[in-house]
Structure formats: structure tokens, C-alpha cells
Amino acid sequence: MQRWPVLLFLAWVCFLFFAGIGLFMSGFLLTRIELASSSSCSDPLVPPPWERQSLPPGSCWAPQRFSKAVLVIIDALRFEFARFNPAKASPLPYENKLSFLHHLATSQPRHARLYRFRADPPTATMQRIKGLTTGSLPTSIDVGSNFATYAIQEDNLLAQLVQNGRRVVFMGDDTWEGLFPKKFFRSYFFPSFNVKDLHTVDDGILQHLYPTVDSGEWDVLIAHFLGVDHCGHKHGPDHPEMAKKLTQMNEMLRSLVDHLGNDTLLLVAGDHGMTETGDHGGDSEKEVNAALFVYSKTPLFGTGPPEEPEAVPQVNLVPTVALLLGVPIPYSNIGEVMAELFSGDGDAVSAALQQLSVYHINAKQVDRFLHSYSLVAQDLPAEQLQRLQELFSGAVEEHTQLLAQVQGAALVPPELESRLGSLISRFQQYLREARAVCTQSWARFHPLRMVGGCILIAASCLLCYMASELATASDSFYRSCLLYPLLWGLLVAGLLGLAHVFTQEGLDLLLVSSWAAAASQLGFFWHWWGQHPKRAPLVMLLVGKLHWDGRLTVPEGPKQQLLGFSSYRREIWYLLCLVAMLLVCVRLSGFFHQCREEIPQCRPSLFLSPLASLRNARAKNLFYLLCVALLAGLVYAVRSWLRHYGNLNSSDPLVLFVRWGFPLVVLCIACYWAVASSADDSLGKLQELVQVAVVAFPWAVYGLASMGLLLLLCNPMTVFAKDTRESAGSIVTPYLGVPSSEVDFLHVIPQIYKRMQESQKSRLERGSCKATVAAYGLGSVYSAALIIALTLLGFLLMLLHSERLSLAFLLLFLEAFVLLHIHTRARGLAGDAEPFSVPWYAVISWLLAASQFFYSTGHQPIFPAIHWNAAFVGFHLDHSTNLLPAVLVGANTFASHILFAVGCPLLLLWPFVCEMPSSQKRKPKKEPREELQEVEEHMMEMRLRESPEKFSTALLQLGLKYLFVLGTQLLACVCAAMILRRHLMVWKVFAPKFLFESLGFVVSSICLLLGISLVMRVDCAVSTWFSHLQLR
């Protein structure tokens, strides 16, 4: 069996797909260009000379209104959390808890005001922090670095504060440490990633907040609380814990206001909102609708608040705070100042003049940024930039004329007030249109790379199909279809590397990989065309083969006789029962679906929430017992299957682990579910014990599963060999197991009789006596290893999901079992003469089941639906690295992809395991002597050993077919994302779908290689076993 050529060929095909994905992604998810320029006090954006006043000390661009500011960020503070409605008699847990904000706004209407704080998607914490400090719009690609933050190099509010000598103190979310290294005068960082921890960050802030405020050793204080956000992730907003958290925030604000001075500005803001399930990351109304509360002990507003709170984009906070504190606006800001905060205590004309002054500064800053940006990037439309320039020039010209008339006292107050209001509206129009242009055009696509990525993926799909049809076990095939294309690719990569060395330019590894992949594909097609110059066009060959799959031609090879009528009817009924079971599994899997926010009438499945969220103790206990019982049932079913085929008879370490380790793993998972579902109810010392158990039991499962997989890799043989002294030839018989009941004895007796016949015949003909080896479980040795591996992976993946989703995993295993039997029976009924070839319909149905259970394990291809809790199964504190939580969350998200990809070789093995007894009845009647020679045990999977070349070719063809179907799905998503890149829903639907499909392809292809590698490892062990057997 050729093992390494098969694995290398599949790995090379995966690389081709990966290169196409990377090239397309580099063109589709490009970040905007960040300008290195920064603002300074010396910039020509100071107030005009007509005001005849000099700026006070410590002020830049505009007079400083406040010497200190406190920014309290309550993560995920949705607007509904901050709004107070006294008319509600029985509010929800998240309503009417921040009563102190309502008290300030009603008792001091000119000192306090509540706003709707509109966040720009994506609503992940790191992107919102960037928006709140730079005044710009982070792009969708930054979502991938949400938990691997990079320092902000762009000009930002904190950099301006530090540059102008202000002392910035921070306490809270440690995300800020990665974004703003060495920017804080004093800092108290706390781990932020553990979403199950509701109190560590908040309690740490409260420990330092009031002493720091009273010390006065600060100019700007930032406190980032995380309890509300973590409570939403863990329990959702409609939970008593949310009421406790919001009440804690209310008392914190009440105490904080008492410690503030008259020269201090207080800002209470949410960086984003949350959905009804407590998630965020998308652009639904509840995710982007946060709250902003502004308060000062000195009057801020010239008029009372409006009836309905005003909606303010989050980027507007940056220029507003910068000018209020007397520092320059960050260079790349596109926000609009909140002019009502600059009204002061004067009359309407004086207030309008002050507002006009800050609008003029803001507009000049935005115009300077747009001009600089357009010089280095071409993604902003020229006609829209021209219109913006006309708006700005007209407003500035009118502003100059109006100031001249005001200086000469040529306007009376009513007319002046009207002119001022009109000019302010013109500046507002300019700033809002500028922001809209940037919002629409910020994603800087690279069409050439996108097209190149599509071509690479499409060519890889075509290559998979052609190679699956042409694959043979000959050396010439691997030489022409693998070695030569690899040499072509390496040659192109080497030439590009040398070119970069001579030109002294930076080496773009992605482009080099893409060119190498394209060259290797051309090498494959070139050699194929050279060997088949008269073949039909490729497209016709592909379409015809996929549509008809040989139905228009007579199959070659020996024809098999059809079953008798009674047997045929029995098999048909059995197949119909299997199809009915499949339909039941598909229907039941719909009970575990997550909802998308585009379907408002949808209600998320009750099975998605953990048992700890259930308030009914009886329902919690019943669900717990059901989950544990079904988990034990899975172990019983696996062990029964292994026992039936004789794979539990030996005393090898792997077999002993299956006997005793599987129940122990189930016990550890059951104990973990028990303590996790009751962790919030325990008190005192019991709470400490529960916290230890919540970490210990998952680690026990990790350890046991790792031990089982290690034993499987070291010695995957689950065969029990028994030597006897009989007068028979040297034969190896795959027994079905040890008889354990009367039915089994009735089955064994005919086998003993057949053995006696063979023994007597051998004695008469040969007169010799040779050793006979009875091998229990040899006929299912490949499938047994895969089933053990899938069971261990299933344990790990169920641990990473909520308890009740274990029911979905049991449905997954049941549906996979039914699909395998349908595939086997369908092939038996069709009289397939190609047992070493897996038909296309089997591969497609297998992959459709993988996609089905992606949704039926509570996932959706959107960022808010990611189960972040999986990163902390077995971890109480924060992670020291981002790799491990990424692996855990990825395993949780793509659990179905992992299981079906690893189990893909079962599509080839299962028909051999389930050899139908009726197959012998199809043979024509023979003489008694010939019939005696034909009587033998079913060889089952050992038939694969009879033709090792066909075995390796079958594995290669199966892997290529699997990658072809996966690649076709990926190609459809890539084309949809490219064609609809300017669609309104591109970042809501098509871009997330592309990202999830790409990651799913990567995970599936890697797991497919692992599954085929396991089969080859078993084959290597079987070869070693046979060689040792011959030496006896």
C-alpha cells in the first residue's frame, strides 16, 4: 500500500485551496490605510483672529472647558439598560436599574443628558475601543484580532492627551494594555477574556476607583467595567444576575458623583449593546444601540433635554472630548462634535458663535484628513470627494463673510441668529456626508486578488475531480500528477524569491504561495493534457460525469446476478426503514437551532442554554439524568458494536481502555455537568470546592481522551489471535466474537461444522498438519480504530458544548450510522461491481450531514453566535496565550466538521464490514466438491488487504471527492461574497458566511488527512502483525 504518496497528494491539494482562500481574503478583507500623521497644537486650525482672545494655558485649538474628565465604560451597556421608565410596574431584570442616571437628568436638566450611543459594526470590544479613541471606523477584518490585540499606531485621543502633558489613569479591561502600551500614568489591568467571571474586573476597579479620584493625581481617568457584558454572555440580559450587576453599577455611579469636583466632566458610555441572548459582534439594532450619559456639576447645556434622547454616533465622542479638554482632535477623526456641550452660559447668539467655532475647527480637521487620505488611497470616489470639497469651501467662504459682518456689527441679533443657524447646518451637512462617504467606501477591495482567488479555488476543484477519476496506484501517476507539478511550483516560488532579493523589495509570502499554487496546477493540467490530448473538453467531461455518473454506459466488469424476489423485497423494506430513520433524525435536529436576528419571529432553542440557567430544579435534574443516560447509551452502543465484531477480546492497552476508560470518561463528564449546573447555588467553602471541581473534571476528560488517542496511535490493533493445532492450511479467520448467548451458539455450531469439513478435506488431500490462527476482530480492524477515535473526539466536543447539546451529538452519531447503512444497502441492491470506489451520492450526503449538524449544534455563520464559553471549559482564570482558547472555540464551532471529516474513510470501509450473507446466494449452483472449496468465512475488511494498490487508490479517490465537494461549497460562498461585495448585507451575511466556510474548509481538510492517516497507521500495524504471524 502506497501511504506517503497518497498523503502528500492530498496535502498538496489542500495547499492549493488554502492559497486560493488566502489570496481571495487578502483582496476581500483589506483594512483601510492608516495614516501616520498626527495633530499638534501648531496646526493652522486655531480660532480666527476676530475673536480677539488668546487661548488659555493648556488649551489647543479651542478654549479648555474642563481640566479633568472621568470616562466610565460599562461594557455592553445597551440603551434600554440606562433608560428609566417610571410607568413600568413590573420591569424586566435589565430595566429601571440605573435609577441614579434618571435622577440626575430630571433634577439637573442643564447638567446631565442621556443619549443613544450608536456603535459602528463590528460590535466587538476591541473595535469599539478603537472607534472611541481614534474617531475612525475599524473594518471587519479587525474582528479576527479581537483577542489578539495590536497596538494602535494611528493618532488617537490618548496619544494626544499624553502628548500634551495630561496624566491618564486606567483601570479595568486588559484589552487596553495591548492597544495603548506605555500610555498610562498609572494603570490597573484585570483579565478580561473569561466571560464566566462576573466580578473580578469590577471588584478590582472599585477597589482603586475612589482612592484614585480623591488623590487628584490624574487628569483623565478611564474605568472599563466588564461585569454586565460577562453576565450577558453567561446568562443573557433577562436574568436576575443582570439586575444585580446593573444595581451594582448604579451604586458605583452614585458614589462616584459624590467624589467629583466642579471642574470634572463625567461620561458614562457603553461600547456596544447585546442581543436577547447576551451576544454581540454584528450589526443588529440591539447590538449597535448603546447608551451615553454626560454629566457635570457645572451647567453644560443651554436648553433642556429633548423629549426623545438624541442618537449620537460613537465617533462623535472623540472630537467632543478633545476640544472640551483643550487638546487637538486626532488626525484621522471623522466624527462630528456634539455642539450642545459648547453652548456655555451666554445668550443664544453667543452660544451659536461658540458652536460655530468648534464646527469650523472640526470641519477643517476632517477636510485635512480626507485630502491626505485621497493622496495615498483611491478607494474614496473622486466625484463624492469633489462634492465634499465644494460643500466645505462654500461653508468656509460663508463663514468668513459672516464673521466679517459680525465684526463690523452689520447684522442685528434676529438676522444674525438665523444666519448662524444656517451656517451651522451647512457644517453639519458636510461632516455627516463625509462620514457617510467613508462608511460606504471604507472596505478597500482588491478585485484582481479576488478574481485570482476564485480562479485558484475553481481550478483546485477541477483538479480534484480529474485526479479522482484518473487516480491509479502506479508510480507514473504520482510522478506525472504530483512530482512534476510540485517541481513547477517550487521553481516559480524560487524565481520569485530571487526576484525579490535582487529588487530589494519586501517578500509577500501570500503572493509567492499563490503563484506557486497556480504554477503547480498548470503543471498538473499540462501533464494530463499531454497524456490525454484527444479527451473531450473538461467542462463537458465534468458535467456529463457528475450528471450521469456512467448511467448511459454499461458498467464494465463481471455482472452480478440480482437478488431473488423475496430477498430483494426484504432489502427494500430494510432500506425504506433506514430512510425513515434518517428523516426522523433530520427533523429532530431542528430542535437545536440557533436563531439569526434577521428572523424576528424565530425563538432560539431551549437546549442551547446551559442547565445552570434553568430555575426549575426538577426540570434541571430531569434534563441532567437524560443527558447522562444518553451519554452512557452511546458508550454501550460503541462497546456492543466492538464486541459484536470481536474487537474487545484481547488484553491490549487500547482494548482495556475502551472497556474501562470509556465509562470513566462518561463519569467525569457527568460530574462536571453536575458541578457546573449548580456552581451558582453553592455557598461558602462548598463554593471553593466547586470551583476546583469545575476545573479538575474537564482536565480529567482531556487527560483520559488524550491517553486513549495516544494508545490508538501507538497500537491501533484490536485483534485477539489464538493459536491452535489443527489439520488445516494456514488461514486467518475474522471471527465475529465470543459467543455469549444461545443465539450466538446457534450461529457458531454451523461454523464449527464447516471447520470440521475443511479439516477433514485438508487431511485427506494433503496429509499434513499446519498451525491455524483464529483472529477475532480482524475483519473490522480499520473501522474499529476509527470508531474509537470518533467516540473519544465526541467526548471532547460534547464537553465543550452546553449539557443539553449532547442530545444533538447523539443524533449526529445516529444519523451517521444510518447514512452508512443506507450507503451499504444501496450498493448491495445495485450489485456494484466496484467495491473499492465510493459513489458521489455517498460523499455528498456525508458532507450535507456535516453542514446540517453545524446548525444543529447551536451554531450560525455569524460572530454573535460563537460560543465563547468553550474557551474556559477547564480553565478558571484567564489564558496566558491566545492559541489554546482559539483551539477550544474552534473545536466547539466546527465540531460536526471534525467528526464527519475524521469518519470519512468509513464510507469506504463500511460495505466491507457489513458483508451481506445473501451475497453467497447469488453465486450459481456448483458441485458439492466445489461448494466445499467455496465455504469460508467472510473476509470483510481483509479484502482490502488482498489488493493494497486498489486500497490506497480508493483512499486517494475518497479524499479527492471529499475535497471536491467541500471546495464547491467554498467556491459558491467566494463567488457570492465577490459579486455582492457592495450589497447592503455584505458584512452581515456574505462576509461572515465566507469566513466560516473558509475556516470550516481548513478544519475539515486537516481532519480528513488525520482520518486517512489513521487508516494507514492501522494498515501499517496490520502488516506488522502479519509479518510477526509468519515468523511463528
Automatic annotation (TrEMBL):
<dbReference type="InterPro" id="IPR037675">
    <property type="entry name" value="PIG-O_N"/>
</dbReference>
<comment type="similarity">
    <text>Belongs to the PIGG/PIGN/PIGO family. PIGO subfamily.</text>
</comment>
<feature type="transmembrane region" description="Helical">
    <location>
        <begin position="695"/>
        <end position="715"/>
    </location>
</feature>
<feature type="transmembrane region" description="Helical">
    <location>
        <begin position="654"/>
        <end position="675"/>
    </location>
</feature>
<keyword id="KW-0337">GPI-anchor biosynthesis</keyword>
<dbReference type="GO" id="GO:0006506">
    <property type="term" value="P:GPI anchor biosynthetic process"/>
</dbReference>
<keyword id="KW-1133">Transmembrane helix</keyword>
<feature type="transmembrane region" description="Helical">
    <location>
        <begin position="450"/>
        <end position="470"/>
    </location>
</feature>
<feature type="transmembrane region" description="Helical">
    <location>
        <begin position="509"/>
        <end position="529"/>
    </location>
</feature>
<dbReference type="Pfam" id="PF01663">
    <property type="entry name" value="Phosphodiest"/>
</dbReference>
<feature type="transmembrane region" description="Helical">
    <location>
        <begin position="894"/>
        <end position="913"/>
    </location>
</feature>
<dbReference type="InterPro" id="IPR017850">
    <property type="entry name" value="Alkaline_phosphatase_core_sf"/>
</dbReference>
<dbReference type="InterPro" id="IPR002591">
    <property type="entry name" value="Phosphodiest/P_Trfase"/>
</dbReference>
<keyword id="KW-0472">Membrane</keyword>
<keyword id="KW-0812">Transmembrane</keyword>
<feature type="transmembrane region" description="Helical">
    <location>
        <begin position="482"/>
        <end position="503"/>
    </location>
</feature>
<feature type="transmembrane region" description="Helical">
    <location>
        <begin position="773"/>
        <end position="799"/>
    </location>
</feature>
<dbReference type="InterPro" id="IPR039524">
    <property type="entry name" value="PIGO/GPI13"/>
</dbReference>
<feature type="transmembrane region" description="Helical">
    <location>
        <begin position="572"/>
        <end position="592"/>
    </location>
</feature>
<feature type="transmembrane region" description="Helical">
    <location>
        <begin position="836"/>
        <end position="855"/>
    </location>
</feature>
<keyword id="KW-0256">Endoplasmic reticulum</keyword>
<feature type="transmembrane region" description="Helical">
    <location>
        <begin position="1000"/>
        <end position="1026"/>
    </location>
</feature>
<feature type="transmembrane region" description="Helical">
    <location>
        <begin position="622"/>
        <end position="642"/>
    </location>
</feature>
<keyword id="KW-0325">Glycoprotein</keyword>
<dbReference type="GO" id="GO:0005789">
    <property type="term" value="C:endoplasmic reticulum membrane"/>
</dbReference>
<protein>
    <recommendedName>
        <fullName>GPI ethanolamine phosphate transferase 3, catalytic subunit</fullName>
    </recommendedName>
</protein>
<feature type="transmembrane region" description="Helical">
    <location>
        <begin position="960"/>
        <end position="980"/>
    </location>
</feature>
<dbReference type="GO" id="GO:0051377">
    <property type="term" value="F:mannose-ethanolamine phosphotransferase activity"/>
</dbReference>
<comment type="pathway">
    <text>Glycolipid biosynthesis; glycosylphosphatidylinositol-anchor biosynthesis.</text>
</comment>
<feature type="transmembrane region" description="Helical">
    <location>
        <begin position="805"/>
        <end position="824"/>
    </location>
</feature>
<keyword id="KW-0808">Transferase</keyword>
